[in-house]
Amino acid sequence: MTGIDYTYDSVVGTLRENIVRLSFIKVKDGQVRNMRATLDSKFIPEEKMPKTDANAKTEKNQIAVRVYDLDIEDWRSFRVDSLQTFDTI
Known about the structure:
With about 90 residues, the chain is mainly beta. It has one helix spanning about 10-15, and strands spanning about 20-25, 30-40, 65-70, 75-80, 85-89. The chain contains one helix and five strands, in the order αβββββ.
């Protein structure tokens, strides 16, 4: 997926079925953060699986996406409107 018009639904849908290399601008300090991320359960260790779907459709969750970062092996989140790159691996 390339371009600048990412939607919450398309980002979450892609992450649920793929590993994605993405970059975004951190709100906290303006730095660019790179990661390999997924929401596909076959790539997330059982002990790291959430009890609930943090990306369930609610008004507040339409801004930030919670993902499993494969490089640091933990959960992170980013704002959809801060995405710079988003490519399936």
